[in-house]
Design a protein that fits this description.
single chain, 200 residues, alpha/beta, Rossmann fold, eight-stranded mixed beta sheet, 5 helices, globular
């Protein structure tokens, strides 16, 4: 199988075009996944994310992608971006309680911070556990835009500080990776991250 990255298209995700461009700039080949048949030709998966947890899960169900996605992410290197990382969790609490993909034992809760929410703009990541996705990116800044955060205790690979509040900015469990920031909006640092992902 050739090394093709499948980017999940589930309606509301919105930033597929910029993710596709950034992966191609990093040297990758992209297939936008519109139906479950498309999974057969890809060796890696990117779950993009803009919008709400509840709507995203509903959209995956409506687009008939949910069952296949749950199966595929068990074995293929997968990167969840922003809301895409949040969807890997067990539960989300945006607009009510919604079950996630349950790939990582975590919950998605509102950011409770004494500062402006959403947390927007460039910020550092503090890499706690060296790993292949964040290799040589320890001192880089990435672009964030989110009001919710992943609460997890076992799979954290990076934290970020916002107004004295530390939140999870990257997770890893086996072949699954998640970043709370948007690499596709993070200039050279983001391209480097996609390069690392392509090399997994």
């Amino acid at each position: 199988m050739s090394d093709i990255v499948g980017v999940i298209n589930y309606g509301i995700a919105g930033n597929i075009h910029s993710i596709k461009k950034a992966i191609e700039k990093a040297g990758g080949t992209v297939k936008v996944i519109n139906n479950k048949e498309d999974f057969k030709v890809v060796s890696k998966i990117v779950i993009p994310g803009v919008g709400s947890f509840k709507d995203a899960m509903k959209e995956l169900e409506n687009d008939n992608l949910m069952a296949s996605l749950k199966e595929e992410i068990k074995t293929k290197p997968t990167l969840g971006i922003c809301l895409g990382m949040q969807l890997l969790s067990t539960l989300g609490f945006e607009y009510g309680r919604t079950e996630g993909l349950s790939a990582i034992d975590a919950e998605v809760k509102p950011m409770l911070v004494d500062a402006k929410v959403p947390h927007m703009g460039f910020n550092n990541i503090n890499v706690l556990n060296s790993n292949d996705l964040l290799k040589n990116l320890e001192n880089e800044e990435f672009y964030f835009m989110h009001s919710y955060e992943v609460v997890n205790y076992t799979n954290i690979i990076a934290l970020t500080d916002y107004a004295g509040h530390k939140f999870v900015s990257s997770i890893q469990k086996d072949n699954l990776y998640g970043v709370q920031f948007h690499p596709e909006k993070s200039r050279e640092a983001g391209i480097k991250l996609f390069k690392n992902f392509l090399e997994l």
